[in-house]
Design goal:
- With 187 residues, the protein is mainly α.
- The protein has one domain: Arp2/3 complex 21 kDa subunit ARPC3, CATH 1.10.1760.
- It contains 9 helices and no strands.
- The protein is globular and about 55 Å long.
């Protein structure tokens, strides 16, 4: 890996953890802890995005507990899917960035639901726990409650995060974009 890739990853990991800690402290029902992963994926491609997601959660797990580390596969799929979508032109405009957020949400739901259900019984200490408890209380099975909660909270979060990442990359000066192989796909 080149130095610029490692520096980008370090900055993106700090962005993920910083935003994630603020949202966690406020117990908001969204996460905003993948913006750095999305930036890495949009600038350097799916593999760097995936690695950024992995290292974010492993590092975060060292000082915040096992919940963050357990969701490393989710962060990895965010970087991988966003980088793949970008390479297929799905971040060329605001509407496409929104659609990309929906696609990333589907990927996240498929990976996060079993982790949240079977490792944590649906409760991970986030604001989304309320939705799991509510759906379970009104008669939904735990797996279904978790799936709906994951899909619902992530739909908002990943669409907002994809739009923020798209806007940030779009606003980069051309001389900076030229340094990153996948940045040119964001219009």
């Amino acid at each position: 890996m080149k130095n610029k890739t490692l520096v980008l990853m370090a900055v993106c990991i700090a962005v993920n953890i910083g935003l994630g800690q603020v949202v966690s402290a406020l117990k908001l029902p969204i996460f905003l802890d993948a913006i750095g992963t999305l930036l890495a994926a949009l600038l350097m491609g799916p593999w760097v995005g995936m690695a950024t997601g992995l290292f974010t959660n492993l590092i975060w797990g060292l000082f915040s507990g096992p919940v963050a580390a357990a969701f490393a596969p989710v962060s990895m799929v965010i970087g991988l899917s966003a980088g793949w979508l970008n390479r297929r032109g799905m971040f060329r405009s605001l509407p496409l960035a929104i659609v990309s957020g929906v696609v990333v949400t589907v990927c996240v739901t498929l990976v996060a639901t079993p982790i949240r259900t079977y490792l944590f019984g649906g409760v991970t200490g986030t604001g989304a726990d309320f939705f799991v408890a509510y759906l379970n209380a009104v008669g939904r099975k735990l797996l279904e409650s978790v799936a709906w909660s994951v899909a619902g909270t992530n739909l908002i979060d990943k669409v907002v995060s994809c739009v923020i990442a798209w806007a940030l990359v779009k606003q980069l000066p051309q001389r900076i974009k030229a340094q990153f192989p996948d940045a040119g796909k964001v219009a």
